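agent> Task received from the user: take the single chain below, predict its 3D structure, and emit structure tokens. No templates, no multimer pairing.
agent> Plan: (1) validate residues, (2) run structure prediction, (3) serialize to tokens, (4) report one or two observations.
agent> Step 1 OK, no nonstandard residues flagged.
tool_call: predict_structure(input=
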Amino acid sequence: MRTAVITGANRGIGAAVARALLADGHRLCLAVRDPETLVGTDLDPQRHGDRLIACRYDARDPDDAERMITTTLAHFGGLDTVVHCAGILRRTPLVFSDDQIGEPDELWRVNVMGPWLLTRAAWPALVASSQGRIQVLVSMSGKRCKGTLAGYTASKFALMGLCQAMRNEGWEQGIRITAICPGWVNTDMASAVQSMAPEAMTQPEDLGRLSAHLLTLPDSAVPFELAVNASLERG
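)
tool_result: status=success, residues=235
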């Protein structure tokens, strides 16, 4: 049994990961902007006893990471897994308009600094566990650039670099990192996509099962990068 923090766990991929990890018997802290959104759902902490708690977490607030990790450790007595699913999409092009001037900074704060600060807060507990695991939902946009999403792609490339730094610094302490890189996933973020039907996209539940399986692997078999394609990637 593992003890995991999952960000963005009230919707989409984060919720699917939470359900899969609960099914495998793990203990979870669901880190979401508004814990009230979980009330009455299958991820309502009241339905799972001491195995599930919810904490307010906004990736834009540096203090939330520390508070949430402190709460998790106080409740469970330890922590060995962090799953970063929180992120935002802004369609910021290379030559952005005056109205979009703040978007690159917002993408950096949420998509890069959010995981960085939370990992920093959780690091001592992950080291103490001697079997720490970090999973980061990076996206295929962290591996290649398609279209005109300059701001989003730049933030995801930076996030992939951060994952590599985590791997380097955590290796000797038994911490293993997996950068999960899906293409289109059938979530709200992809609701405007017209080039692919929702049923042809990767489904959140499938990513949830992959996430859970990764936690069953020994140090010697955890992949650093997991690319998940719903369509053929050329080049």
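agent> Step 4: summary for the user.
The CA atoms of residues 131 and 218 lie 9 Å apart.
agent> Done.
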